[in-house]
Amino acid sequence: MENTNTVKLTSLSSKGGCGCKIGPADLSQVLRSLPQTTPNPDLLVGLDTSDDAGVYKLNDEIALVQTTDFFTPIVDDPYDFGQIAAANAISDVYAMGGKPITALNIVAFPISTLDKKILAEILRGSGDKLAEADVSLVGGHSIDDQEPKFGLAVTGTVHPDKVKTNTGAQPGDKLILTKPIGVGIYSTSIKRDLLSEEEVDRVTKVMTTLNKTASETMANYDVHASTDVTGFGLLGHASEMAEGSNVEIHVNAGQVPVLPRVKELAESGAVPGGTKNNFDHIKDVVTYPEAMDQIDKWILCDAVTSGGLLISVASDDANSLLNELQDKGVEAQIIGEVIEGKSGHITVLD
Predict the structure, then answer these.
(1) pLDDT, tens only, 300-314
(2) pTM for this structure?
(3) Which of 217, 218, 272, 328 has the fewest C-beta atoms under 10 angstroms from its C-beta?
């Protein structure tokens, strides 16, 4: 049996990975091949807008928010991996303006070859993060698999009239991002032993931080759209918001918060495949500054796990929301704005 203090969890993944989703182009092709379902008036948010979670109206006061996410280890500490997986799965509910209430574990684990204490630590980490979010664990499912994977299915509630989607951004809005990017490059760097202990702690803190405070704070402001930045990267999720809202988005690259040393790590080759796929997928809808190099473009497309919220808020409320978020310890920055422009397009500014 492996000892929990010596096993390198990230080495057990065939791809090491950033927790990336299947590429958007491949996923869209698969979904297009499925038969169309009969529209349901109580399904407030479904498959058609690439949103973070599904929303189903139960009555005039309550709607369910449902989501699921799981992935291979992106850090080596099993307790931290459990915390990250829980924070990541819960985040979709927060992005929709909801309150997460219950969760189901999704476990794949090589039970005959890895110490059971490792799985126990993963579940303990997840359990502690669920407790922090005031979410009740109600069950789950496990399979014996050669490659460990872990995640959760999460259910939340929201008032039907207060659902936040990624399709409501309005011209004149300011865009606020609540966590730094570069997580995918850091995750790949962990697998390659390129990070210091302090850097591992830094990215782990980013990924284990709940979007609870950001979500609850934005509820008090004139927020028109929200999404969490995860596998498709900052520009990928911004492009979904731009397309769904029929607007153009401008991103000021110099204002985007980025983890320290990300460019240096990327230049050394620690750029995950998911990040490059993201860049390729959206290259036709993004205009970059002429002088911007390829590494900086990849960073803006970096595949994120448990990233922050991208919030489109009325200009008059932007500074007040930003100040309140920062006062509460959220690493938020205004990174751009929404304009009428070319629908679905992203323009990156220096």
Answers:
(1) 999 999 999 999 999
(2) 0.92
(3) 328
